[in-house]
Amino acid sequence: MTQNKELKQLIFKSIIISTLSIISHSAFAQVFGGEQNPLSVKWRQINASGFKIIFPSEFEKEAQRIANTLGYIYPHVGGSLGRQKTTIPLILQNRGVIANGFVQLAPKKSEFYTTPPQQFDSQDWLNNLAVHELRHVAQYDKLTGGKAYPFPEYVYFAWFGVSIPLWFFEGDAVTIETALTNAGRGRQPSWIMPYRTSLLEDKKFSYSKSSFGSEKDITPGYYQLGYLMASNIRKEFGKNIFDSLLTDIRKRPVRLYPFSNSLKKFTKMGTKKWYNHTTEILKKEWTSQSEKSPTENYPALNSESKFATNYFLPVKIKDGRILTLKQSKAETAHFAIIDSTKNETKLLRIGYQEQPWFSYANGVIVWDEIRYDPRYRQRSYSVICSYNLKTGKQKKLTTRSRIFSPSISADGKKIVAVKIDLSNKCNLIELDAETGATLTTIPNPENLILQTPSYNPTANLITYISVSEKGKAIWVTDKEEKTEQLIKETQQQISRPIYINRGIAFNAHYNGIDNIYNIDTVSKKITALSASKYGAFNPTQADSTAAIVFNNYELTGYQISEMPLSPKPIGRNNFVYFDGAVQKQENTGSVFNNIPDSTYISKPYHALTNLFNVHSIIPNIENEYRGGLQLNSDNLLNTFSFFTGVDYYRDLNKFEYNAGFTLKSFYPIIRATYRNRPRRIFYNAKSGILQGDWRENNIQLQASVPISLNALNDTYSFSFNALTSYTKRYDPVNLPKTFINKLVFPMEYNFTFNHSTAQAPRDIAPKWAQIFRISYMHQPFDDNLSGKLFAFEGFLYFPGLLKNHSFLANFNYQNTSGIRKYDQEINTVYGYSNIKAKSILRNTLLFNYRFPIVFPDAEIGPLAYIRNLRAGMFCHYENIGSDTNLAEPKTFGFELRSSMNLLRYQPIFDVGARYVFVNKVYNQNPILELILNYSF
């Protein structure tokens, strides 16, 4: 199907059935992971307390711990919502290196991505996931009544999306993870730092901007917004307010803004008023905190930016210039060097990192970045890369590895890093900085989670952080005989220790604000090195006499500053803790204090015998003439999907019966669809135009092999598809004698190559991208239907004249014959369907230039939140060389578009209009096309 056909269909569905289309499987595939693990994974399962825990065999020990944990803590996690028991499958995903977790419906399940990140809360990672995600389970059970039948999960999920803002789901979960443990994000100053900074800098954001984000400013985010609003609502209206709120929403589901209206019913204020009320409280509390906390001013060493820009992990190199990892709303992550006049030189764009990280010494940069398995994208790797400033040579030092936070020795010869295996066994390792070979593996007998190691100047000592349920600690090891704990387990958000002079500098929040501290390795005395108003991070020192270069957080992001090595008292902790009332209401202490230690029966989990998992009956509306019901099944491992349904054709007064499956276990993805459907045709006869009807059995088969590779800033994708079908027609009524009663395996082949670079939030399209697609269709098994189609499409993306502008040159060619003579498989000029054709379509040459105009972040009451305004110009040719030439395009014109959130709902709508001028030889008036699209 061509892009124009897809766009037309999408526009139509958005106008007519926008609510129903949101519940489609393809829509939710964008929200939750739909990827697969390799076939080599051997799965097992434990059934305990209503939880079906499915896990890879090497994760048995941790799965047993989770089985003990979930049933024990769930009554506490769900208590304030009136939920004491639940039934849900939990998948423990250990093949990936990106830490995450979610709960979903359709099918109902939770997934924990078990590899711990290198910077998170001061508690065990799996415990952190459990308490947060179980709160989502309780929320969903409260809204659905915990019922699994009659398969309404897609409908429930769609209803959640239009009924309840994301900030409530996530904010309520963060209040519980904080109140029921000794940790939680509500105790982290850095987590709410952007919100605090914007309020103390008198930067007022609308409710919509705080909730939906911005392509210009750093906004609080719906997690942070939700936590602060939810904790405030609980403080003022008690423990059971959200139980009452969700019960009312479930009882009265069909109304506009059900969450805000129910909130108003119980508290006399809707969401907007609660946002304003909470903002007033926050500003008052944070202003008082600021007045109590002595601070120092640190001028920025980087140039001023008009929009959100971060200069992470600054370090001075030998000539006095500063090396940094820069990332902004307008630019993807890249290394840059800043001189004394604040001029910047770009070095190298890098790939996705879970958190910004690099280390520099002796002219060499090392960092980690994420690489995905080419086919099974549940499997990912953290590889170590290096870049030599002198030679400009970049190398990948490790392959298919799970190694994190590399730190290079002062002589540039060794690297220390964290390695985590598939059982979550964690070790420090040393690598050869030239070859990537493993030199040493340092024992970790207690299997503590380890983070962010670094060498001392002579590389004979290593400092690092450990994390457990007791908290975070700082250690020093000589790698062989002696390991010493410098700072005992604490709930301080300790991060990134680094040797400076006789001590170790690190981040913590002893005074209630993230700042840089120093511990003397001999006396163990802790002193403060910085006194930032909002947060100071990532210290480095070029030599023992140099000033400390560090990140100072300001309104536009992480800036670069420097300060002398001048120790001072750590000061009083003035942190404002907003979850205190919720903690008193819950009154549990840490729910992880007395976890049982039972051993559960573990047995193999066979994917083949668990293919079917029916979860939803949904309405399926194709257009104004056709609609029906569809039964959906998706297995828990995302390897098999099945549907069956019935559609009613209103214009024919007949039914279609259909079924199909998608098998994603193997390298090729296999799809098959069966339809028994009515058909109608109008044809010319001697007596005039006649109508003919019949039914047909149609079977469609498709095999596709999608391959995707990523390295640094580039992604390369290859896809091969083969499609065929068999159609048998029967019950003919009033059809001509020449009517063909079967179509025997017409064949279609597609090959696509795609290379693109990563996009920044403000980019209209990739700065550089190339897409080539070849299609071929023919009927090799049917002598009665001759005809072929060959098509080629090429897309070339280039940077525009200014930042974030995009120019696209798209050439398309097709050659058709026989029954496919009038087929259209390639992109057409804008306005194509409204212009009478002069000849058969052979080729098109399409030029498009698009650019952003403004990012207003404008809230129009509850109606819309305008994120941006964009424009474009186009010049399109058809059958160039015969119908048109470069001086006379077939169509040309301009378009205006805007991305917005409508009615305070999460999907982003792309709304616009296009004005198409037509070459005068077609005698055609200008065409106005309206544009409506959406995404998540």
Description:
This protein is of the alpha+beta class and 936 residues long. It has 13 helices and 46 strands. Strand 18 and strand 19 form a beta hairpin. Helix 3 (60-77) crosses helix 4.
- Give the distance, in angstroms, between the N- and C-terminal Cα atoms: 23 Å
- Give the oligomeric state: single chain
Characterize the largest beta sheet: strand count, sense, and whether it forms a barrel: 17 strands, antiparallel
Low-pLDDT segments, ≥5 res: 1-31
The shape, in one word, is globular
Mean pLDDT: 93
What is the total tally of β strands?
A: 46
Assess the beta-strand content as a share of residues. Answer: 35-45%
Percent helix:
10-25%
Rg, Å, rounded: 30 Å
The DSSP helix count reads: 13
What class would the helix/strand composition place it in? alpha+beta
